[in-house]
Design brief:
single chain, alpha+beta, six-stranded mixed β-sheet
Length: 204
C-alpha cells in the first residue's frame, strides 16, 4: 500500500514538472523581445511614433552647422543619445515604403533595407551636454526595423549602416515574411490548446 502511494506521489511530481516545463516553453516563445522577421505584429504600441519623433522631427536644420544642431537637439531633449540620425520629413512616404515589397528587402531578423539610398544627417554629440562633435551628411541605404501596428507594416527603429550595406538581389521583399508567416499568427492559440490538453490529460 505504501509502495503504491509512493509511486503515485512520484508520478504526480513528474506530471507537475512536465506541465511546468511546457508552460515555461510556451511563455518563453510568446514573450520574445524582438520579432525574428519583418512585418510581424509589434509588441510596442508607440514604436512608430517614437521613430518619427527621433528621426523625422519637424524643424530639422538644413545645414551642418554645429550651433544650429546643438540648439535643435536640446529642443528635442535628446542629449542622452551620442549618435542620432535625422531624415528629412519630406521623405516620410519613401521611408515608410522601406517596410513594403516595393521599397525594401529583408535584411535580417525584423530588419529591412531600402532598395534605394537616402540622404540623411548623422549627429554625434557628447552625452548629457549636447556638445556637438560631428555633423555629417550621409547617403546610404536605410536599415529599418519594420513591424505591424494597426494592420500596417511601419518602421519602428533606425539601425546604423556603418559598412554601407546594400540590398541583396536575392533577398525577398520586406513584406514577404508577413504573408509567409500569416499562418503562424494562429500558433499561440494552438500552443494553448495543446497545453490545455496536456494539463487535462495529466490531471486525471
Amino acid at each position: 500500500m505504501y509502495c503504491c502511494q509512493n509511486k503515485d506521489r512520484v508520478g504526480m511530481a513528474a506530471r507537475r514538472a512536465f506541465v511546468s516545463l511546457a508552460l515555461c516553453l510556451l511563455l518563453g516563445k510568446q514573450t520574445s523581445a524582438r520579432n525574428d522577421a519583418p512585418c510581424q505584429p509589434s509588441k510596442w504600441n508607440n514604436g512608430y511614433s517614437r521613430f518619427l519623433k527621433r528621426h523625422l522631427p519637424s524643424g530639422t536644420p538644413d545645414s551642418v552647422d554645429h550651433n544650429e544642431w546643438e540648439k535643435f537637439i536640446k529642443s528635442l531633449g535628446g542629449c542622452d543619445r551620442p549618435t542620432q540620425s535625422f531624415l528629412h520629413p519630406k521623405d516620410l512616404d519613401r521611408v515608410r515604403a522601406v517596410c513594403s515589397d516595393e521599397g525594401g528587402k529583408v535584411f535580417k531578423d525584423n530588419l529591412c533595407i531600402s532598395q534605394q539610398p537616402f540622404t540623411f544627417v548623422t549627429v554625434r554629440s557628447t552625452p548629457g551636454t549636447c556638445g556637438i562633435r560631428k555633423v555629417e551628411r550621409e547617403r546610404k541605404h536605410l536599415i529599418l526595423a519594420c513591424e505591424v501596428l494597426e494592420n500596417v507594416c511601419v518602421p519602428v527603429h533606425f539601425e546604423g549602416n556603418p559598412t554601407d550595406q546594400r540590398p541583396s538581389n536575392n533577398a525577398r521583399g520586406c513584406q514577404s515574411s508577413q504573408r509567409r508567416n500569416q499562418a503562424a499568427t494562429f500558433q499561440p492559440s494552438w500552443l494553448w490548446l495543446i497545453f490545455t490538453f496536456l494539463v487535462t490529460f495529466y490531471a486525471f
